[in-house]
Structure formats: C-alpha cells, structure tokens
Design goal:
By secondary structure, the chain is mainly beta. Among the domains are: 91 residues, Phosphorylase Kinase, domain 1 (2-Layer Sandwich); 188 residues, Orthogonal Bundle (Transferase(Phosphotransferase), domain 1). 13% of the residues lie in helices and 40% in strands. It contains 10 helices and 56 strands. The strands form 13 sheets. An 8-stranded antiparallel β-sheet has the order 12-32-31-30-29-28-27-26, with no helix packed on it. Strand 31 and strand 32 form a beta hairpin. Helix 3 packs antiparallel against helix 10. The longest helix is centred in the N-terminal third of the chain and has 19 residues. The termini are far apart.
C-alpha cells in the first residue's frame, strides 16, 4: 500500500515516505492535534484478515505504548486505514545500529554505552511482561544525540501462529538477499531455534549476540545456510570476542559470554543485572576535592570538584576486605532507570518506599518516590533537595531561594505544602524522636552544628556537611572540611556537650555520613585517604568509635552511600562525574572545549583571551592537584607545578596558586623563572587569591586562627591586611581596573569595599541574585551573572544602574548539570570561558552488605 503526501489517516497527515520492509511501510506524518511530526507504520493488509490476530496486534501495540522509557520507541496510537492496521510512534532522527556497525567493531566506549541503554530498555519491558523476541541491530536505532531506541516491541509476538524461523524472516528488514535472512536467524536464542516456549531470558541471549557484534564487527553465529546457523546457536560457542583484534577486558568478556549461555538458567536472569554489571564496568570516576562544583552540593556553596579516572575493566564490585566472590556476596537491585543526577535518597518509615531528589534529562531538581521492583518513580510534585525522612514520615527538605540561599523546610511524604523552618541551612537530619532536627547552620559566615535548632554545639572555621544523628540520639556524626575551597577533610562526631572526636582523617572528599542501625559504626563515602581508594572515585568506608577504618565496598565509578535501613539494606547512588572547560570567542559558530585531562577546573582567562589557567584536580593531577596553562587555540597544555590554580598576573608571566599541602600561596612562572612561596603570616587557609592590576600586590580570602573568613590585601614581601569585615570573602576576581575597589556580596547586597581608605558602598542597580564576575576594562561596568541554567551575563553600569544582557550560557548537554561553574571574561566582555560539572548516576538497593 503506497500512500501519497496529503493522505489522512485520522488526525495524521502523510508527509513523505521513510522506508519499507517486511513488516510494512513507514511514513513521516503530521499530527494535526498536537502539531508534531510522527512516524506511521502501515502494516500488511493480511493482518486484518484474522480478527484474533488483529485484536492481539492492538493489544501488543497498547502494551508497547505503555512502556514509557527513554530507550524504547514511544508508541502513540494505533488504527486501521482501508483495512490495513497502522501504528503511530515518535519520529526518530539517526540510523539503525546495523548501519552504525557496518562491518567493523564499534569503539569499546560506544559499544558499552549502547549496550547499557539497550539493557535498561529491555529491563523496563520485561518488568511489564513484554518480551521482544526479535532483538537485532535492525531493530535498534541510534539517534543523532547517541540515544538508543528499541523498535518494534511486541510486534514479534504477533507471529506466534508461524514457526520461530518464519518469525525471524517476517520481522527482518528488507529481504533482498539471503544474508539478511541468515543474519536475522543468527540472533535467535537456542530455545527459539527449538521452537520451545521463550521468556525474557531469550532476549538476554539475543542481547549478547548484539553486544558481541558491536564489539567485534562480526556475527557470533553465522553459517552458510539458515540450518547451519541455527545448528551453531545450539551446539557451538562463538569465537572469543576481541575488539580490533585485541582481547576484551576480562569483565566485558565475561558479560558477553554469560549472556550467550545455551541454557536460560545459566544466563543472566534479568536485564537489570546485565545493565548493572555493565554500569559497574564502564564507570568514569571522579574524585571530588574542590569545594565549588559538586553536583551533590550547591554551586553557591562550593568552589570546585576534582575527579579520579576509574580503572576500566575492573568488572566487579569489591565488598568488605576480600576481592573474591562468595555465595554470600551482596545483592544489588536497581531502583532508577533514567538519565540524570540523584542528589540524596532515603528510606521511608514503611521500609519499602524510597524517597529521593533527582534531576532527570536536564529537568530541575525534583522529589520522587519509588519502591523496589517498580521501574517507574512517582513525582512528589516539589522542586527541592531531600535531607532526611523521620520515623513519622516527615521529610526535611532544602528549598533553594532565587539568590542561591537554602532554607530548611518540613513536609509530610503523603503531601501538603512545605513549612519553612530556618534559613542558611547546609545539612539536616532527624533525631530518633522524629520531631527535632540537627542542622548545619551558617551564621555570620561560619558553619555550626545546632541540635536541637538554636542550640549551638560546635562551630567550624572551614565548612561542615552531612550531619547525622546516632540511633540513640546522643552523638552527631558529620564531615568537616578545614579549607573553604577544598572538600578534603575528615569524619568526626560530637556528643551533646559539643566534645569533638575525629573518627577518620586524610580524605580527598567525603559524602554521605550515616550511622549503622546498631550505632557502632559510621559509614561514609570518600576518595583519597592515602591511597585507600586508588583507581576509584568514592568508595564506601566504615569507622568505629575508636577510629578503626575498613573498606566496605569499592568499584569503578563513584559509590555514594545514601541511607542504611534498620534491617541493614543500603541505598547507594552509583555513577560518574566530569568537569569540562568551554570557551566562546566573538564570531565563533559554537563554543570550543578546552578540557585537558580527567577533571579540568578553570581559574582564569588572560586579558587577551589567548590562554587559560586551570587545575587538573583528578587522578592526572595527583595529590595536591596540578596547575596548567593552555592556549585557547587548543595547543597542548603546559604543567606549571603543584597546587590549586587561582590567577594570572597582568603581564601573563606568573600564575598564582594555593599549595593545599602547606596551606600557602605560591607564585609559579609561566615561562623561565623560579617558583616562590608567600609567607602566610598566620593565615590558616585560603579560599581565593588574585593579582591586583599593579601586578605586585595580592588579594585573597582566608582566615586566621579563631577568626572567620574575610578578604585580605598583601604585598608578597609584607603582612596581610584585612579589607572586609569578618565573614565577607570575595569568590572571584572583582578588583576594579584602578585597584581601588573589590566587590563582594554581603547579606544579598552587592558591595564595593575600598582596598585603601574609605567606606564600603553598595553597587548601584545590583540585585540580590547577582554574582560579580569582573570589571570591564574602563571601570564603568561590572559584569554580573544570574541564574543557573541558563546563566545570563549582564553588563551593569555602576553609575546609572542600567544593565544590558551580553551573554547567555547553557552547556550543550544539560543532563546531570546542576549549573555553570566559574565564569571568566576578557576585559571587553566579548570572550568568555567557563566550566561545568556533569554528574550521572543511578540508585541501587544493596542487601547483604557488611
């Protein structure tokens, strides 16, 4: 049946043909009701001859339409036209996996990515009782943005009345050669070949055949005839898979061969297990160390994050202190299946419901609930970050205000409006009574632990996170980070009198502090620790009250412990993160990427726009990080030395950095010369440092013993002099071109502080949500930014208060991106560079972890 342009099938108007195959013809059509383009597949008229067959087709199409998953083709509608059934689905732009593979293997990274997506799509279908039974590269579609879609779900079941071999031929692509038919036969499971009843494990076998072909560029089973191919499926093992002639990593090899077991009982028993193993194998890890960029922390609160590259091919999780698997190994159950970032997750009091905060597919952070065994999550209908759930079923939440401040609120899981409790809260946890809360509260620029709210137990000079009340309510565990710009630190606890005990120190980054149900250990996720987690990002550790520390679990990628249930079940977010640097120059068609190694963190852009200064803060940077200089022409980066980079001198000859191991400022030459360390003169930690326009004096934020952070001015040979009140610390290079003023945000008021004599002055026309970036070269305009995604950059005339929008910044892929990080401009404001962190993870429930 050939349909011409303009033909109407109900509300769908045919636009143009897209292709034809054994299952019918496919057209581009326009849905007049919703104003969108769709794909319409018109099936052969013989499908309508048998009423039972037609009824089953409609039933299967409805089942496929009920599968709401990013890796499954969305089916919108069905109908008939002139006696021929048709199905309406989303319109895809890309090519089939068959076309993508061709006759050569895919890059291993791509094959693993595609395999993970396919496995997750299959799992979603299997959990709805739908088995594909015709999985092959022709039925897998790769969109232009790299998303894999499984096609024709349920349609293979239409052919039960014919033999399994006929099914393969009928549902194949255009049958112009024997090779096509044989290729389709080659994806059948042994039970399909025998004509036996099949279940979801048949799809797992077919998945293994597809994965084998992606990795090797050749069919796992192929003979000179259909009979010989089917005989190979029944009796022969495929040649050992190898990519480009090289053996695969053992973990990946194991996954492929486990899928291809002849007996269904010996294969993976669920597609979820397949997806989890591939996820564990392929994670790109990162090691959070600089305070500002963690996707699990507010960008307004932190100044950077470091990453650690995972060792590819590790394959299996390592639990406890043994690397050997045993019959009592932990059991992993995936709970989320969408692409994005999970910030916090908690068990609800019923022990089965799980509540979590996530941003899926680039959407804002939102609260969801789910239960094990359900592929879908239910939105709670509130954009907020989760902190804790009480035994009474009440959530402690953090609401984000327009200026970036966070407000603690309470809200029942069952619904209702959140009730605001306290501003400037960074972390919160319920006491065992389910009524009182322990919080990290920022007061006058310093973090302190209050329990209950209003009763201060402990105050820190750095910053605090991850507060957790013990099961008995008499101790509070937390993470303490002595340096404001760095998330290094230790796990500590205090009693109700405020006595502090350090449980474990020396970590590069800490997330997720939780007590075990017995209250005898504190579990936490961390990286670093004197090589304890080499080759990984966050691993899970346990510390006793006497400071004895053991490894609970490690894996490629990042393992963030989210919660521990009374029966010992553990919630873990597993994923990866990466930091990227982007550059925009006038007239360029698009931004260019200047990322160098595993975690590049931008600190400065030269005034001529030709060089960037940045840190490598992951594995490549090593302990204490490394400072790099790179040309914006994408020339190779030059390593200048150790430390956390800060600022280029006005003449470009020197780079200012923070030596994190000594907590001192260091000046590194960008060309010939010797490095120089600046005397700290009692400064215990630094959060920011920059050159003044004269190229001689330095501006920095830091604190002295027993005092809060503030802003100082220092000659390299002299002592520092405070120029702002306690609690006021600049976070970017906002020194005026004449060196007389520096800008900082004070209680939602953008204020200019004199570097010499004079009084502070509010910046005319500034808004509470403005973040200062730098002055324009003439000193008449202050560039400020607003928003998270997109970020808008304004030129603020400080004389009139008028503002003009000059740039709007959004990363190309916003999934897993909370906001844009540090932004640097040239003096004319025409060129800019920025970095952003992308974090992607999934939630798992682990049983049997000890």
């Amino acid at each position: 049946m050939n349909l011409t342009s303009g033909t109407r099938l109900g509300p769908y108007e045919i636009v143009a043909p897209l292709g034809a195959g054994g299952m019918g013809e496919v057209y581009r059509a326009r849905d007049s009701r919703l104003g969108r383009d769709v794909a319409v597949k018109v099936l052969p008229p013989q499908f309508s001859i048998d009423e039972e067959r037609l009824r089953r087709f409609e039933q299967e199409a409805r089942a496929a339409g009920a599968l709401n998953h990013p890796n499954i083709l969305s089916v919108y509608d069905t109908g008939t036209y002139d006696g021929a059934p048709y199905v309406v689905s989303e319109l895809l732009d890309g090519e089939t996996l068959r076309a993508r593979i061709g006759e050569s293997p895919l890059p291993q990274r791509k094959a693993v990515d595609y395999a993970t997506q396919i496995a997750k799509g299959l799992a979603a279908a299997h959990e709805r009782g739908i088995v594909h039974r015709d999985l092959k590269p022709d039925n897998l579609f790769v969109t232009r943005d790299g998303r894999v879609k499984i096609l024709d779900f349920g349609l293979a079941k239409m052919t039960d009345a014919v033999s399994q071999s006929e099914t393969a031929l009928v549902t194949g692509g255009p049958q112009t050669s024997a090779g096509t038919a044989l290729g389709t036969v080659g994806y059948m499971s042994p039970e399909q070949v025998r004509g036996q009843k099949v279940d979801h494990r048949s799809d797992i076998f077919s998945f293994g055949v597809v994965l084998y072909e992606m990795l090797t560029g050749r069919r796992a089973f192929q003979g000179d005839s259909a009979v010989e191919t089917m005989n190979a499926i029944l009796k022969e093992d495929p040649k050992p898979p190898a990519n480009g002639g090289q053996p695969l990593p053992p973990g990946l090899d194991r996954i492929v061969l486990h899928c291809l077991e002849k007996s269904p009982e010996e294969r993976f028993q669920s597609a979820r297990d397949v997806a989890f193993d591939i996820d564990a194998l392929s994670g790109t890890s990162s090691q959070t160390s600089i305070k500002a960029a963690s996707g699990r922390r507010s960008w307004a609160r932190v100044a950077g994050v470091a990453a650690v590259a995972a060792a590819a091919g590790a394959g299996l999780f390592v639990a406890g202190r043994s690397t050997a698997a045993s019959p009592r190994s932990p059991v992993f159950q995936p709970l989320t299946f969408r692409r994005g970032n999970i910030t916090f997750a908690r068990f609800a009091p019923d022990g089965r419901t799980l509540v979590y905060a996530a941003s899926w597919e680039g959407a804002p952070l939102e609260l969801f609930s789910t239960q094990p065994g359900s592929p879908e999550s239910r939105t709670i209908g509130l954009q907020a970050d989760l902190q804790a759930v009480s035994q009474r079923g009440e959530m402690a939440l953090l609401l984000r205000k327009p200026g970036g401040d966070k407000v603690l609120a309470r809200m029942p899981i069952g619904g209702g409006a959140p009730r605001e409790v306290l501003e400037q809260v960074q972390s919160a946890d319920w006491a065992p009574d389910g009524d009182s809360l322990a919080v990290v509260h920022t007061v006058s620029g310093r973090d302190r632990i209050e329990f209950p709210i209003g009763r201060a137990l402990y105050e820190a000079q750095g910053w605090l996170s991850d507060v957790a009340v013990s099961p008995t309510g008499d101790h509070i565990a937390f993470a303490e980070h002595p340096v404001a710009t760095d998330s290094r630190g230790y796990v500590a606890m205090i009693d109700l009198q405020g006595k502090r005990t350090i449980l474990s120190a020396g970590w590069e980054d800490i997330f997720g502090v939780h007590w075990t149900p017995a209250g005898n250990e504190v579990w936490f996720s961390a990286s670093g620790g004197g090589g304890k987690t080499a080759g990984t990002d966050h691993a899970i550790f346990a510390a006793t009250m006497t400071g004895s520390v053991r490894t609970v679990m490690s894996a490629p990628g990042s393992l963030d412990v989210e919660d521990i249930a009374p029966d010992g079940r553990v919630l873990v977010a597993h994923g990866n993160r990466r930091s990227s640097i982007m550059l925009h120059t006038p007239g360029a068609a698009q931004e260019s990427e200047l990322t160098w190694m595993d975690f590049s963190w931008l600190s400065d852009l030269s005034d001529d726009g030709r060089r960037i200064l940045f840190s490598e803060a992951g594995v490549a940077g090593g302990a204490g990080y490394a400072v790099y200089l790179r040309g914006t022409d994408r020339s190779p980066a030059v390593r200048l030395g150790k430390g956390l980079s800060q600022s280029l001198s006005p003449d470009g000859g020197w780079a200012l950095a923070i030596d994190l191991t000594q907590n001192k400022l260091v000046i590194l030459p960008t060309g010939p010369g010797e490095s120089r360390t600046i005397d700290a003169h009692g400064i215990k930690a630094y959060s920011f440092a920059a050159w003044l326009p004269d190229g001689k004096r330095l501006l920095f934020a830091g604190f002295e013993e027993g005092k809060a952070f503030r802003t100082y001015l220092q000659d390299p040979d002299g002592a520092p002099r405070a120029i702002t009140p306690a609690g006021v610390a600049v976070r970017s290079n906002t020194v005026s071109p004449d060196g007389k003023w520096v800008v900082a945000l004070v209680k939602d008021v953008l204020t200019a502080f004199p570097t010499g004599a004079g009084n502070p002055q509010p910046v005319k026309g500034a808004m509470p949500e403005d973040t200062p970036i730098r002055w324009r070269g003439d000193g008449r305009v202050l560039f400020v930014s607003q928003g998270r995604l997109p970020v808008r950059i304004f030129a603020l005339d400080v004389a009139t208060g008028a503002r003009t929008l000059v740039h709007e910044i959004t990363p190309r892929d916003t999934v897993g991106v909370d906001s844009v990080g540090d932004i640097r401009l040239t003096p004319d404001g025409n060129s800019y560079a920025y970095n952003y962190q992308q974090q992607l993870n999934s939630l798992y429930q682990i049983t049997g972890l000890k």
